[in-house]
Amino acid sequence: MDGQILREMLLVGFALSVLVAATSVPLRLLTLDGAAAAVLVGTVVFGLGGWGQATLLAIFFISSSALTRWKRERKPHPEHRLGRTAGQVLANGAVAAGLAVAWSQTHSPVVAAAFAAAVAASIADTWATELGLLSSRRPRMITTWQEVQPGASGGVTWLGTAAATAGAGLIAGGAWLLGVPGWIPWTAGVGAMLLDSLLGASVEGRVRGVTNDTINFMATLFAAAVAALLA
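Above: the chain sequence. Below: its structure as tokens.
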């Protein structure tokens, strides 16, 4: 990419990301550090990944933010009151940002597929959580199928699972913008959502340093790797 064009794309990406972040903070969608992380991720993805990758990232952020705000009074997690932190933003967006950097250097269709899958994994997990918390039925632990409290790591509901597959499908439908067959990010995204639940049930809180953010990052990385293999 020409140096002047690159600088202009990064500048536009930065301006748009700042606008989104500045709007998100008063709406309690992002904390201040979360807004800074969102500006970083948005600038990198738009500036180096282009309009197609930025569009998929925007679909994830806008839809997930809307679901986060919807009936937030019924949801127990701190982000529903305070907004998502930098750790949460980077857990969902760092892999995508890294792949945008790689794509700018290679323009590889494999990297494009991995990017779409990473976003599909993030949206699948977020939609599963936000709608699963509203399920009329108590969640069940994915490893034992015993009933658990809403919001428990590793807990799944049919509503949340259906939401995850639909969210991944939304990103899969937009993957044509990157020239990626939709079935690749959908398969990788849904698989990553299931892995996220399995890790949440088995290692989160049991292994030192493994938090929900760690698992979300691992799930997006897993989705990207699966998509690269499928592509």
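The longest strand covers residues 140-141.
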